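Example record for the data management plan.
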Amino acid sequence: MTLPMCRKRAFLVLGSSGKLGKMLRHHWRDFPAEDRAIYWQYRENPLDEGVRWQPGAPMPGKLPKVDAIVALWGVTPGPGRVLAENRLLALQAMELAQVIGATRVLHCSSAAVYPPGPDPLTEEDAGGDINAYGTAKLAMEAALAEWAKAHPAGPKSCAMRIANVVGADSLFAAIKRGDGPITLDRFDDGEGPRRSYVTVSVLARSIEALLACSEADLPDVVNVATPGPVAMAALAQAAGCDIAWRPAPKAAAPMVALDTTRLGKLVPLVSDTPAEMVAAWRRLEPEA
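Corresponding structural encoding:
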């Protein structure tokens, strides 16, 4: 007797043409997600395995059958951008999951939901004195919680509070410009800013773990970072850049570090050195 072939599990990535989407696509091309097919959503000009669709448009007629959605799309700070749209995009992802039968959705939140402080920030520390982007992401998370209450049998969601992504934040934008020294704040202790970072490979492994874990183990929110903060000066120096120091303004934050205990229960985490982080970024950068 011939046994029927099992369908390969799959997930759909929303926001494939963004910076993070491109980096993850190139990572998963070289290191495929184990036992999973990946489909990619684009507003226009979809690449291989791509789906052309945008929020507000009618659902495409031939959506792939997927088990999960990874919603990378979102609105970041910038002139003319409406940060409140992050809430609407998250809810659109949940509604799409219902339509196509996906059982869970991972959303991109941000370390901006936390006020800076001297100690690692746990998932319970969000709120307080945060900027408009962080406020918008917390509003997005609150909307997801309300959606879950209204749809108890619907797909589950997890908000990934992602640290600075190596290669995708303002520091690496300055490194890529290559137009002179990198300007960094120097605080009263003589040190520069320290931040939690995450490489694309760790982000990809974290996403895979959140897709693979049981429904009971899927957290509502989770910090996504490599363990321990990283000195931004060390990253700049590892990239071969000189540093121009300036006195830190009062509003500047010496450290934003995420506690990764919750994530570490789902995926092994190892701290990379600044040189290793920069090397990992350079392997992706020519195509990202």
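Summary line stored alongside the record: The first helix runs from residue 19 to 30.
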